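Annex B. Sample input.
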Amino acid sequence: MGKIIVTGASGQFGGAAAKLLLEKVPADDLVFLSRTPEKLASLAETGAHVRYADFDDPSSLRAAMEGGEKMLLISTTRVGSRLSQHTNAVEAAVAEGVKHIVYTSIIDGGNPAHPSVEQHDHYATEQVIEKSGAAWTHLRDSQYSEAVATAMAIPALQAGSKPDNCGDGKIGFVSRDDCVATAVGVLTQDGHLNQAYDVTGPELISIPEAMAMISEIAGKPIELEPVDDEGMYAYFDSLGVPRRASDVLPDGPIPWASEGMVTFGQSIREGYFAKVTDVVERVTGRKPRTLRSVLEQYAPTWPK
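Annex B, continued. Sample output.
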């Protein structure tokens, strides 16, 4: 049997997937890739293979992929320019004999009409993988509950208000833990080849409902201010967030661009996130976490 490769193993998703795989698969059958392999010393100590890989440097990738049979391709953070990174990884993997590529995409990721700029890269990457000759599984993850509990909750609680362009659009918020467990399940089970899965939590909740939940748990009021897309851009401008992915500074203070967030809000408002599936339970054997359980987990970190 060939090895299971995990890309981006020094990131949050990759690191969690690596730990879970080590509980299920012999360490010698695992390959963990990173641009900063020195951050993976604890994984190397288990006997797993830790290798340097830079998706912007195709010459580094063939050796990194050697001996792999399956690969978890975790989407990189560079919205707008990550298609070339993903393509480099897929081409190197297939050239080294990888037979199955599992990709972390976005909810409704196979829909070219999806307005989110985040989605354009995911859709194009799915096409590259499907044409690569390898079998594939697209894990189209909904919005992470952890993002709501941190990046959304903390500024809203600090300000006592939050501008929002999502309207009453519903989202099947999903815990990152459940997405990781689903990915590991797909990598270690049979029966998932050439499938696309929408990976969601157990219920549909709007942003106003999520904010009300945060307010209730924190015991602090949050005033939700409905704005249009331009109003949302203006809010992010006031925080110093770059508008376009191409303007994001590598290793800068803010690693994302407002166009991603604003068009994300548009896609929520227009119903592209309004999906609930049983994928998490079907693959992992456990029910997915609720948004409330994740909010309660993070509440001790919120501003008092």
